[in-house]
Design a protein that fits this description.
Blueprint lengths: L1 H28 L2 H9 L6 H21 L6 H24 L17 H24 L7
Helix pairs in contact: 1-3, 1-5, 2-3, 3-4, 4-5
Length: about 140
């Protein structure tokens, strides 16, 4: 019975993580030029890399988010989502430290949250992704969901 509750909890956590990244990816894929500009406002990468990421990154989020639902692809997908979460944490923290007055760009054009809120959200997602990835690597979860 306890195993059933664990399976439900971890399955729900995986689904939530995947849904957030798929939603974020779709919202950015709808306007890659705007997302490339959001990346450029962080002043970390040269414009050609920001433009390339504006096209590529949303699709990586979507594919990795969907792949979480495949037992075979789950370990890699969780690793990618955790890694992306930590990259976002570093980028947002860097913008905060440098005093940039920008929005995150995490969910496309409609987002207007502060960088501090975006940092907390990214830390939460990165931590959840890392926890699920490490738990999945241990093996017991491979039997569930």
């Amino acid at each position: 019975m306890a195993q059933d509750h664990q399976t439900l909890i971890y399955g729900t956590a995986r689904s939530l993580l995947a849904a957030v990244f798929v939603y974020a990816g779709v919202s950015k894929a709808l306007d890659p030029a705007q997302f490339a500009e959001a990346i450029d406002r962080y002043r970390i990468l040269p414009w050609p890399l920001a433009a390339g990421l504006g096209l590529y990154l949303p699709w990586l989020e979507i594919v990795a988010g969907v792949a979480v639902f495949s037992k075979r692809l789950r370990p890699g997908a969780l690793g990618i989502l955790a890694g992306l979460g930590w990259v976002f944490v570093v980028a947002i923290a860097s913008a905060l430290v440098r005093g940039l007055d920008i929005t995150c760009g995490c969910f496309g054009t409609g987002e207007g949250t502060s960088l501090t809120f975006s940092l907390v959200r990214s830390l939460t997602l990165a931590g959840l992704g890392t926890f699920l990835w490490l738990r999945n690597a241990k093996g017991p979860e491979r039997r569930a969901f």
